[in-house]
Amino acid sequence: MEKFARNSLKKKKFIIFGGGFSGKFIANEIRRLGGEALTSSREIQNNTTSFVFNSLSSLLPPDHIFEGTTHVISCIPPDKSGKDPVLLKLHKKLKSLDLEWVGYLSTTGVYGNTFGEWVSEKDPVRPLQDRSKRRLLCERRWLDSNLPIQIFRLPGIYGPGRSTFESILKKNIKVIHKPNQVFSRIHVADIANAIIFLLLKINHENFKQIINIADNYPTSQIEVIEHSYKLLGLKMPKPINFDDAKKLLSPIALSFWEENRRVSNKLLCKDLGYELIHNNYKSGLESCLEIIKQKNLI
């Protein structure tokens, strides 16, 4: 795929709204494969690959940023009213461009609580949390935008610099046990590479507009933490029962424990043929740890 991707992305220009964890990783992967990628920030950066976009102010990208743009990716969350900042401020501008493809990063939270059962793109959406309800509103606005949109629903995201290792090393991790609770996850490298893989198939007859990007192994948070301690050669603290931990958690942290689902990647991996880089958390954590060691952080 890499050779094909390099040939396909060579003359493509990507505008990525949201230069955070996922946005930066996607941009770097596009650049590695020979494409051009610019990421947004809320304030002016001393960086030629960055541009300003702040929907809360008048700081909008100048026209020259959009010149030659072929692809757009939005990683920016909804505002408090459920409006999409990119569509709110730049819908007309995006419509005026000759775009080949637009991607929107959403959340598997739109499926709500399935009590540990598997959920796929064919299942109904029943968001429980307000933030997931807002995401669903944005999904629908993108679908109604008359842009060449593809939506990616993501579970818990981790990767270099954003894994259980950082919490363990900073000694701010909470080891919580809740029976039968599972979470789905995805390594940021698979987000980037799955998106690139899919956008290269946009003219394929099997094009799908909404796709889950998740690994093969939903599991409990404590299993992941235990394995992380093992890889670090440290002893894991005694777990706290969830009922006792409730008072220690912030409202947003607590809200994640209110939902229990296994996210299916069958459409992505079986039907569309994407091969995961990290098909489970063990592979992903080993990759994260290798980078930590390279940086001499332990």
CATH fold-level label: Rossmann fold
Please, what is the oligomeric state?
Answer: single chain
Q: If strands are numbered along the chain, what order do they take across the biggest sheet? A: 3-2-1-4-5-7-11
Number of strands: 13
Backbone shape:
globular
Domain module count: 1
Give unreliable regions as ranges.
none
The name of the CATH superfamily reads: NAD(P)-binding Rossmann-like Domain
Percent in strands: 15-25%
At the first level of CATH, the class is Alpha Beta
Distance between the termini: 35 Å
Number of helices: 12
- Rg, alpha carbons: 20 Å
Taking the sheet with the most strands, its summary is: 7 strands, parallel
Query: Helix coverage percent of residues?
Result: 25-40%
Structural class: alpha/beta
Overall average pLDDT: 95
In the CATH hierarchy, the architecture is: 3-Layer(aba) Sandwich
- Give the helices and strands as they follow along the chain: HEHEEHEHEEHEEHEEHEHEHHEHH
Question: How would you characterize this protein structure?
Answer:
- With 298 residues, the chain is of the alpha/beta class.
- It has a single domain, classed as NAD(P)-binding Rossmann-like Domain (Rossmann fold, 3-Layer(aba) Sandwich), CATH 3.40.50.
- 37% of the residues lie in helices and 16% in strands.
- It has 12 helices and 13 strands.
- The strands form 4 sheets. It has a 7-stranded parallel β-sheet, sandwiched between helices. Strands 6-13 form a two-stranded parallel sheet.
- Strand 1, helix 2 (21-32) and strand 2 form a beta-alpha-beta unit.
- It starts with a helix and ends with a helix.
- The model has no long low-confidence stretch (mean pLDDT 95).
